[in-house]
Specification:
About 30% of the residues lie in helices and about 25% in strands. By secondary structure, it is of the alpha/beta class. Helix 1 packs across helix 8. It is globular and about 50 Å long. The N terminus is likely disordered.
Length: about 260
């Protein structure tokens, strides 16, 4: 979530068709966020969100490319036309909707706290009282902390979740607060499976946590929004969405919201 974008030709995803129009550039956070997006050993982007991006671009019959941007630089870079669509696990929230528009939802998961295995489970203000919570900057979890936990717990911010995970594993913080699937991936990793466990999902607050993850667009790009919404719906209707989902998860990531 951060700086100036760089377009990597080698990492670019190119989907062409006879009827393809101008290239559609997708902004993706320049840090790994498994299982949604990460680079393989050859430097190519892969993951659930990248597979969905491919399917959506194929459905639109457009050439598409990836522009890498730090997380907190995604919205400014979109507004300055460094790329056309934020496609980076960004939740559609009331605050963000003041400055950008969003496509229809393409997935949704709860927000979760994880902590050391010997810590008592719980995800309320009483449970975190006197503790230090690691949170990635410019996230919906940081806004949730301000409303529900700021009076009883301390926040420590990080540029990436990986940095927060390292501090949690080494005992420098008491919790990490983030998207449940990203945290679950850490708990299953070599660095997380021995040290840490899920403490619980926080109570929902739609105004802060949003209406699900969507593609972010400039408000004036109504034609592109319509094309993306049509493509997302077609990918779901065709069964491609379910096939991609089953490749990574044993439950429906689309969610209830």
């Amino acid at each position: 979530m951060k700086l100036l974008p760089t377009l990597f030709a080698g990492a670019a995803l190119v989907l062409s068709a006879v009827t393809a129009q101008a290239e559609v550039r997708f902004g993706v956070m320049n840090e790994s966020y498994p299982p949604f997006f990460a680079k393989d050993a050859s430097g190519q982007w892969q993951g659930w969100e990248i597979d969905l991006l491919n399917a959506v671009c194929e459905e639109m019959k457009e050439k598409c490319s990836i522009v890498e941007i730090s997380w907190d630089g995604l919205i400014p870079a979109l507004q300055s036309k460094k790329f056309d669509v934020i496609w980076s696990s960004m939740s559609n929230t009331a605050e963000r909707s003041k400055v950008i528009d969003f496509t229809d939802k393409y997935y949704n998961t709860p927000s979760t706290l994880i902590g050391p295995k010997d810590q008592q489970p719980g995800a309320t203000a009483d449970d975190v009282k006197g503790k230090t919570i690691g949170i990635q900057v410019s996230t919906i979890q940081s806004e949730y902390y301000k409303k529900y936990f700021a009076e009883v717990a301390q926040e420590k911010t990080y540029q990436t979740l990986d940095e927060a995970f390292q501090d949690l594993a080494s005992g420098r913080i008491d919790y990490v607060f983030g998207d449940s699937l990203a945290l679950d991936a850490f708990l299953k990793s070599d660095g997380g499976k021995d040290c840490c466990d899920k403490m619980g999902d926080v109570a929902d607050d739609r105004e802060i946590l949003g209406a699900g993850v969507s593609g972010g667009l400039r408000k004036e790009d109504t034609e592109l929004k319509a094309k993306l919404n049509t493509a997302i719906a077609a990918v779901r209707a065709s069964g491609q969405y379910d096939a991609i989902n089953k490749k990574y998860f044993d439950f429906d990531i689309y969610g209830a919201k």
